[in-house]
């Protein structure tokens, strides 16, 4: 059992991997493939939370609420939100990389594919399984695309830019951004509930564990 605990030990930093790029536009077939794969399973994880019917991740609460109000699908709403968030980078001095742009497009496509094709949970127990599987996939997807080093996602870039500008702790800024997305989505009719709480409680640990697994695999 100790080997499993060691294998799942969270990682406190972002590891350097064989596929980590030297810059945000340092493109190579393997690196781009890992990036796209990571973003895809990230989107699938978000879609599982939506189809759990127990409550969405905060940004999906906003995307779902926007989709209801504008009569568009979840993927399009996710794309529009990411594009708007990216717009706020420019006055803050942040600039996107290939990974940033891929994040906007691939996650939106993956979420819409998942929401349209994954079966909805038939009961609460299945919904909770969807929630934890979704959190796990988002964690793994995050670890893979982050370690590519091709640029942060729109929300991560906004968070770090505001941190550099204001000096406020990253955690507090992220909490404020997530809270705004959550409250805005709730006001628009996005679904919140147990799944939202599960995501909030476990997503940080999921990403940290996934980074640790990636680090241990690539260090061998």
For the structure shown, list the relevant keywords.
220 residues, mainly alpha, 0% strand
Domain module tally = 1
| Termini separation | 21 Å
Number of strands: 0
Choose one word for the global shape.
globular
**Proportion of helical residues:** over 70%
Largest sheet: none
String of helices and strands = HHHHHHHHH
Query: Low-confidence runs (pLDDT<50, min 5 residues)?
Result: none
The proportion of residues in beta strands is: under 5%
Whole-number mean pLDDT: 90
Overall SS class: mainly alpha
Rg result: 17 Å
Tally of helical runs: 9
Question: How do the helices and strands line up, and which of them pair or pack?
Answer:
Elements: H1 2-7, H2 29-51, H3 58-70, H4 74-87, H5 98-117, H6 124-147, H7 154-166, H8 170-188, H9 194-218
Overview of the structural elements:
- With 220 residues, the chain is an all-alpha fold.
- The chain has one domain (14-218).
- The chain is 71% helix and 0% strand.
- The protein has helices at 2-7, 29-51, 58-70, 74-87, 98-117, 124-147, 154-166, 170-188, 194-218.
- The longest helix is centred in the last third of the chain and has 25 residues, at 194-218.
Summarize the model shown.
By secondary structure, the chain is an all-alpha fold. It has helices spanning 2-7, 29-51, 58-70, 74-87, 98-117, 124-147, 154-166, 170-188, 194-218. The longest helix has 25 residues, at 194-218.
